[in-house]
Amino acid sequence: MKQMFEVLNVKCGGCANTLIKSLADEFGEVSVDLECEPRKITLDVEEDQIEKLKLKLRSLGYPLTTDELSTVQTLTTTAKSFVSCAVGKMDI
């Protein structure tokens, strides 16, 4: 079922490209709305896959806005998002 999620640390097309490419194999078509804050992604995900999606997003540096992260986790995901963004820009 198509669902929309608000994510943190998405700043540009490079970030969006990373999300689209990294999530496509598991969740199919992914759209990223860069026109709003916080940024929103829309994808086809079933309820039993949401935890898997959360973990994948965190590993890329783009946690959900609803995730409760410690200070260390917040710093780590922010750092990871810079790397993911750079990789995404190289693939554009």
Overview of the molecule:
The protein is an alpha+beta fold. Strand 2 (30-33) and strand 3 form a beta hairpin. A 3-stranded antiparallel β-sheet has the order 1-3-2, covered by helices on one side. The relative contact order is 0.27. Helix 1 packs antiparallel against helix 2 and helix 1 packs across helix 3. The chain has 3 helices and 3 strands, in the order βαββαα.
Question: What labels would you give this structure?
Answer:
alpha+beta, 3 helices, 3 strands
Give the arrangement of secondary structure elements.
Elements (H helix, E strand, L loop, with lengths): L1 E6 L5 H15 L2 E4 L5 E6 L5 H11 L10 H20 L2
Antiparallel strand pairs: 1-3, 2-3
Largest sheet: 3 strands, antiparallel
Count up the helices: 3
Helix content: 40-55%
Structural class: alpha+beta
Give the averaged pLDDT, no decimals. 93
Percent of residues in beta strands: 15-25%
Order of helices and strands: EHEEHH
Distance between the termini: 28 Å
Q: Indicate the multimeric state.
A: single chain
Per the principal axes of the C-alpha atoms, what is the gross shape? globular
Strand order of the largest sheet: 1-3-2
Strand segment count: 3
Instruction: List segments where confidence is low: pLDDT < 50 over at least 5 consecutive residues.
Output: none
Radius of gyration: 12 Å
Describe what is shown at a glance:
By secondary structure, the protein is an alpha+beta fold. It is 50% helix and 17% strand.
